[in-house]
Specification:
The complex is a heterodimer of chains A (822) and B (448).
Chain A: H1 2-12, H2 14-22, H3 38-42, H4 52-62, H5 67-99, H6 128-132, H7 140-147, H8 149-152, H9 167-186, H10 190-198, E1 202-204, H11 216-222, H12 228-240, H13 244-255, H14 260-289, H15 293-314, H16 316-336, H17 344-351, H18 357-378, H19 383-395, H20 398-421, H21 431-454, H22 458-463, H23 465-473, E2 477-481, E3 484-488, H24 492-495, H25 510-515, H26 518-536, H27 540-544, H28 563-579, H29 583-590, E4 592-596, H30 597-601, H31 616-623, E5 633-637, H32 640-644, H33 650-666, H34 676-683, H35 689-704, E6 707-710, E7 734-737, H36 761-764, H37 778-786, H38 796-803, E8 807-809
Parallel strand pairs in A: 1-8
Antiparallel strand pairs in A: 2-3, 4-5, 6-7
Chain B: H1 11-14, H2 37-54, E1 59-63, E2 70-75, E3 82-87, E4 92-96, E5 101-106, E6 114-120, E7 124-129, E8 133-138, E9 152-155, E10 162-165, E11 171-175, E12 179-183, E13 189-193, E14 202-207, E15 214-219, E16 223-228, E17 233-240, E18 244-249, E19 256-261, E20 265-270, E21 279-282, E22 288-293, E23 299-304, E24 309-313, E25 321-323, E26 331-336, E27 342-347, E28 352-356, H3 368-383, H4 388-395, H5 401-426, E29 443-447
Antiparallel strand pairs in B: 1-28, 2-3, 3-4, 4-5, 6-7, 7-8, 8-9, 10-11, 11-12, 12-13, 14-15, 15-16, 16-17, 17-29, 18-19, 19-20, 20-21, 22-23, 23-24, 24-25, 26-27, 27-28
Helix pairs in contact in B: 2-3, 2-4
Classes of the chains: A mainly alpha (822), B alpha+beta (448).
Chain lengths: 822, 448
């Protein structure tokens, strides 16, 4: 094959051959391996160590060249040779001519000079160009000239042609060149291969043609009736003008006479209707889904009631019946004495929007009764009064009743004051009698207050300041009923809002307040924040200073005891310090704390606070406007010396002084700071954390330390009785528990930490010994393992993405090898 | 009338409304309802790994018909079911794998063993044998499946060892003591491609599948040679430590060629860089007799003298899947089917066996939910493969006892050799000899 190709090649296109060999390195890889170009490579010649021109010539020499070319070359070479000879002979002849006699010059030419006869004797030497001049018109001349450029060039070293390489070397060179070509060709796949290698997901076959889905529209557009049925249907449609294009036409016709606005309005209306229908449908569905029986019952009732109301409006006959029923209900209600709004009848009444006077009164009556009942249960009202009131109530208006009650109360108070003023030496002035009287009055007062509160008497309270002040600033109230002393926290019964009574057991509810007593309620709501505010804005230092934070041990001191507690805790601290002398330094080290100066500044002077808590309200009221915006903190170093001797705490004193100085700028008389010492002693009462920590660490170290356990069973393997020798435990029965050497612990020589050496066996199975391959850091791997892939922890799409396999093969699909895109 | 209470499941509750819609889920989306994610997933991964082993039943079936060892197998390009097998008795059978039937049965196709088979264009089959003949057969299904006459016969000068067809052109290459290129329409070889110094037999020749003019051959002189029919030359040759028995070009990585070597290993080479193999695949305990790439190019199968079939992942040089049966003898040929799901092997016992490429894969229709579950399990297995238990289960391979013992022995020998080498190195002058990378030991010379 090769031979054939070569022969054909050189015989046929001489020109091409010449051109190529002229610059034979310009074979482009792109078009190098076309089928038609295969022949080129038959001649492929690597000219690494030759010049181009030489290569070309040697190629042409090696191969069987056409006759013409050979002849020409022969001729040219001969010519050259002849030229030389002639020159020599010329010289010789001239020399001889000068020496010898002049002879008749030998005539060598056959004829005259002319176009076909060249005179040697002419002045100009014969050139190749002269010879070729007549051929100027032929196209082959230029190529010829090019090819013999080597021969005509003047440089001497290129005159001779090199001998061809030995065949083996030549072939090796050929192979190398061919390999380079193949490599280059194959290398075009590298981008593709890289992409495949790096792809996260591969779906085989890789070069599958994307199969387009045919849409219905497309099918419909293409549709042509093929069988009888189809054509019949088509005809029918056509005659009825129901085909797509016809329908469009008729619609256009109908809409033609309408204006744009009208069409828009129509469309909007339609949309509205559809929307409403949709919503109604949704709602109905949602309601139909509810399974609750209670709900169903309520619904049913509601429906009935609605129906009843309608009946009210329309017919009187049914109304009478309904009224009768309602009356029965009411009677039942009253009989059960459940005077609450939770009763059936009351609820029914509540549900109604419009109430006539009778009904309103009935409800009010019921509530009133409930109230009375409640009071009676509490035993707060004398029977005869209530009875009288009851009889009155029925006639009078509620407002007037209340008014009268308040007036009565005020009168009573006044008489009390009068009676206190009178000083006589009667039995009543004796101490025990006075005590008893006081107790009685207090009880009466309490009852009156209660009543006031119930009837919206807070109004009164806020009116006279003295009364309000007294009630509020009262300490933990001590009540004595009979022989038992009852302690109440100070202001709680007063701060409790009326709403809190609206429990299910009480008859006064929010509903009743709504219905009956509108004005007191609103008053209540105004007055309540004033009362409750002191508890809300309590000073954290004052409240919690004695308990001093949750982390400290054994520092719980009763707040109620006031300054006594402070003294106690100081004492405690003193005792402790006296006990542990070496602890002093440690405490001094530890107890560096920051105290917010703001809070200190708002605190009271201890001298003026026998009961700290009780004066809170006053303090707050006064210090409100004078709060310092500056939030300066003070570093306090507690030392045992501070606690026990008062002379050596110059530092603390100084701080106190500075604080005082600061305070004087904007402070009134009553508000002063705590003494730092007391504060700190409060804060660190019974604090011994360092020792505890060290003990803990020691115990930890001991628990982990290697140890030996004697597993000998007593009585086994040894003789008992007198005279038996006690053998040491057998070494094979001593179990050695490796543990962790204290010196090899992770927290060895680290005073402030305990690092556990315990190994969690259950957690160990989630650990890996070394970092798996693709990961470069521990965090990376941990992160990848943290995220679960299951459907429980991911969205549907997330799950699908997370579990998508790298290689997807379609079942029953032939996977063809990659094909080069042409 | 007895009232029958029926457990009713409204399809709308648990089935997608339209095909393609997601299946409605009834799970609680609150993450608090699904605690211990990590522990649960690990457990699932463990179960998945166990299930994988539990359901690993790779053997699908056997195609019978040969009365002697099966020497060669080839699949028809573009077909899932047509597979031809040639035997030592000179018979060629054309199988329909999906129906497990014979399409054609050619009793004495060649005198002596059939050494090569390949499909030509237009449903024709080329076979070559040690009787120095190449025969062209009609492979279309016919009534008389035992018709014996070849369509054409190409005489050769010496026994042929292998034959392969060009992917698109009507050309084919044969390997005897030289590599020859034939035209289907011509009775004589159109060219000879031989490395000049090559004198030994060429055992196998294969066309590259994507770069179709490139072909490679292996010879008994421990060489791999690269040819190109465009340049018409043997371009490069490498001499290796031991000779190869089979070669295969990767269908998706056209520069990669896989060699099944006599030294129990498989090697992949990049033809652009033949000095060292890109990967070494170690696992067989005897010579590897055959190899074939999966059409995906990400897996390959190899059959060995050790009576096992192994399925490897590209780039993972150890721990292949191992298939074996009690009766299967030395595996002389192995191919992947065109859908990359099955593996066919021909062995000395005269059977062609069908195996699943993935041992625990379920055959038959798989619903979307099942597929999701399978994919989830696979993901979990992959994610937790570093876990001790999961990894151990995944790595575990059941081997026949002789293979296991041989592997142990081989490992001991190799370890000893390594130790010896290390000691030798220690006792030479420092820096005199460096440890030689395993990959660099494979190729002795690269000849141009």
């Amino acid at each position: 094959m090769e031979q054939d190709l070569r022969v054909r090649l050189i015989g046929e296109n001489e020109d091409d051959e010449r051109m190529d060999s002229g610059d034979d390195e310009e074979i482009e890889s792109d078009d190098a391996f076309d089928e038609s170009d295969e022949e080129k490579y038959g001649l492929y010649f690597p000219s690494n160590d030759h010049d181009d021109e030489e290569g070309a010539v040697s190629t042409s020499e090696d191969e069987a060249s056409p006759e013409a070319l050979e002849e020409l070359q022969d001729f040219v070479s001969k010519l050259d040779h002849a030229d030389d000879k002639k020159r020599k002979s010329n010289d010789v002849s001239t020399q001889s001519a000068s020496k010898k006699r002049r002879l008749m010059q030998e005539r060598t030419e056959a004829g005259d000079e002319g176009e076909f006869g060249v005179s040697v004797r002419g002045s100009t030497a014969l050139k190749l160009d002269d010879l070729l001049a007549p051929l100027a018109s032929s196209s082959a001349l230029t190529t010829l000239k090019k090819s013999i450029k080597v021969l005509t060039s003047t440089s001497t070293k290129t005159k001779t042609l090199l001998a061809p390489l030995p065949q083996r070397a030549q072939e090796r060179l050929d192979r190398e060149a061919a390999y380079e070509q193949t490599k280059e060709e194959v290398d075009k796949w590298s981008a593709t291969m890289k992409r495949i290698k790096q792809a996260e997901h591969l779906s085989f076959p890789l070069q599958a043609q994307p199969e387009g889905r045919v849409s219905n529209l497309e099918l419909a557009a293409k549709f042509k009736p093929s069988n009888e049925l189809e054509s019949a249907v088509d005809n029918l449609l056509k005659s009825a003008q129901l085909r797509d294009q016809d329908i469009a036409g008729t619609e256009a016709l109908k809409m033609a006479h309408l204006s744009v606005e009208e069409v828009a309005a129509r469309r909007a209306e339609l949309r509205m209707m559809r929307e409403l229908a949709f919503r109604a449908d949704k709602k109905a569905k949602r309601i139909a889904k509810i399974k609750s029986k209670a709900y169903r019952r309520i619904r049913k009732k509601q429906r009935e009631r609605l129906g009843g109301e309608e009946g009210d409006a329309d017919v009187d006959v049914e109304d009478a019946e309904a009224q009768l029923k309602a009356e029965v209900e009411r009677a039942r209600e009253r009989a059960t004495l459940r005077h609450k709004t939770t009763g059936k009848w009351a609820k029914a009444m509540q549900g109604r929007e419009e109430l006539d006077v009778d009904q309103r009164q009935a409800i009010g009556e019921m509530l009133e009764r409930g109230e009375k009942l409640r009071r009676r249960i509490q035993g707060e009202m004398s029977g005869d009064e209530s009875e009288e009131n009851e009889s009155d109530d029925e006639e009078q208006d509620v407002e007037t009743i209340k008014q009268s009650a308040f007036e009565e109360l005020a009168m009573l108070n006044a008489s009390d004051v009068l009676s206190a003023d009178i000083k006589s030496k009667s039995v009543f002035n004796m101490k025990f009698m006075r005590d008893a009287a006081e107790r009685q009055t207090r009880e009466a007062d309490a009852a009156a207050d209660d009543f006031l509160k119930e009837m919206g008497g807070v109004e009164q309270e806020s009116d006279d300041d003295a009364c309000g002040d007294r009630t509020v600033t009262e300490g933990p109230s001590v009540q004595r009923v009979g022989g038992r002393v009852v302690y109440h926290p100070g202001t709680i019964p007063y701060t409790k809002p009326v709403d809190s009574h609206a429990s299910e057991t009480s008859s006064v509810t929010l509903q009743s307040a709504d219905l009956v007593q509108d004005s007191p309620k609103s008053l209540n709501s105004i007055s309540s924040p004033i009362i409750s505010s002191p508890t809300q804005e309590s000073n954290p230092w004052l409240v919690t200073s004695s308990s001093s934070g949750p982390s400290r041990k054994r520092s719980e001191v009763l707040v109620q005891k006031g300054s006594d507690a402070l003294a106690k805790s100081t004492n405690k601290l003193k005792k402790r310090i006296a006990k542990g002398g070496e602890e002093k330094e440690r405490i001094q080290d530890d107890a560096v704390l920051e105290i917010d100066a703001d809070n200190v500044l708002t605190a009271l002077e201890p001298a003026s606070t026998p009961a700290v808590i009780n004066t809170k309200h006053k303090l707050k009221g006064k210090g409100k406007g004078k709060e310092k915006p500056k939030n300066d903190s003070v570093v306090v170093r507690i030392s045992p010396a501070d606690a026990d001797d008062s002379d050596g705490h110059s530092e603390v004193d100084e701080q106190e002084r500075t604080l005082e100085r600061k305070r004087k700028g904007g402070k009134g008389k009553g508000v002063t700071a705590f003494k730092q010492r007391e504060l700190v002693s409060l804060a660190f009462a019974g604090d011994n954390v360092v020792q505890a920590f060290e003990d803990l660490k020691q115990s930890e170290i001991e628990a982990d330390a290697p140890r030996e356990v004697d597993t000998t069973l007593p009585g086994w393997g040894s003789w008992g009785g007198t005279g038996t020798k006690k053998f040491p435990p057998r070494p094979n029965l001593i179990k050695k528990i490796a543990g962790v050497e204290p010196s090899s612990r992770a927290d060895y020589k680290k005073a402030h930490v305990i690092i556990s050496e315990k190994r969690d066996k259950k957690a160990a199975k989630y650990l890996v010994k070394e970092l798996p391959y693709p990961y470069t850091s521990h965090a990376q791997y941990a992160r990848s393992m943290d995220i679960p892939v299951g459907a429980e922890w991911n969205t549907r799409v997330g799950f699908q993405r997370g579990t998508l396999p790298r290689v997807v093969k379609k079942m029953g699909t032939v996977i063809e090898p990659l094909v080069k895109a042409s | 009338m007895v009232k029958i209470s029926v457990l009713q499941h409204a399809p709308s509750v648990h089935l997608p409304a339209r095909p393609g819609d997601p299946t409605p889920t009834t799970r609680n989306l609150d993450p608090l309802m699904h605690p211990f994610a990590r522990a649960r997933e690990r457990n699932r991964a463990l179960n998945a790994a166990k299930m994988d082993k539990l359901f690993a039943k790779p053997f699908v079936g056997a195609l019978e018909g040969h009365i002697d060892a099966v020497e060669v197998l080839c699949k028809k390009p573009g077909s899932l079911s047509a597979v031809a097998s040639g035997s030592w008795d000179g018979g060629v059978i054309l199988h329909n794998v999906s129906e497990r039937k014979h399409i054609r049965r050619i009793q004495g196709a060649h005198k002596g063993k059939v050494s090569g088979l390949c499909f030509a264009q237009d449903d024709r089959l080329l076979s070559c044998g040690v009787d120095s003949k190449i025969k062209l057969w009609d492979a279309s299904p016919q009534d008389d499946i035992t018709e014996q006459r070849p369509l054409n016969e190409y005489p050769g000068k010496s026994a042929f060892n292998s034959i392969d067809h060009h992917r698109s052109d009507p050309l084919f290459a044969t390997a005897s003591n030289i590599v020859q290129i034939w035209d289907e329409t011509k009775s004589a070889a159109i060219s000879n491609l031989t490395f000049p110094t090559s004198t030994e037999t060429i055992t196998s020749v294969r066309f590259n599948l994507s770069e179709t003019s490139v072909l490679g051959s292996i010879g008994s002189d421990r060489t791999f040679t690269l040819y190109d029919i465009r340049t018409g030359k043997a371009e490069r040759r490498i001499v290796m430590q031991m000779s190869s028995n089979a070669l295969a070009w990767s269908p998706t990585f056209p520069t990669n060629v896989l060699l099944a070597s006599e030294d129990h290993n498989l090697y992949t080479f990049d033809v652009r860089q033949l000095k060292t193999p890109t990967h070494i695949y170690k696992g067989h305990v005897a010579a590897v007799m055959s190899c074939d790439w999966s059409p995906t190019g990400l897996e390959f199968v190899s059959g060995g003298w050790d009576r096992t079939v192994r399925i490897w992942k590209e780039g993972q040089g150890t721990r292949p899947e191992v298939y074996h049966t009690k009766r299967m003898q030395r595996v002389s040929s192995s191919i992947f089917t065109a859908d990359a799901r099955f593996v066919l092997t021909g062995s000395d016992d005269g059977n062609v066996r069908i195996w699943k490429a993935k041992a625990s894969e379920k055959l038959g229709i798989i619903t979307a939910r099942e597929r999701a579950a399978i994919e989830y399990r696979d993901t979990l297995k992959d994610k937790w493969k570093q876990d001790n238990e999961v990894g151990r289960i995944q790595r575990n391979r059941h081997l026949p006892k002789p293979v296991y013992q041989a592997a142990k022995l081989k490992r001991t020998m190799l370890d000893t050799r390594a130790v010896k080498e290390e000691r030798r190195r220690k006792h030479t002058r420092a820096g005199e000899s460096k440890p030689n990378a395993e990959r660099k030991k494979v190729v002795i010379t690269e000849q141009t």
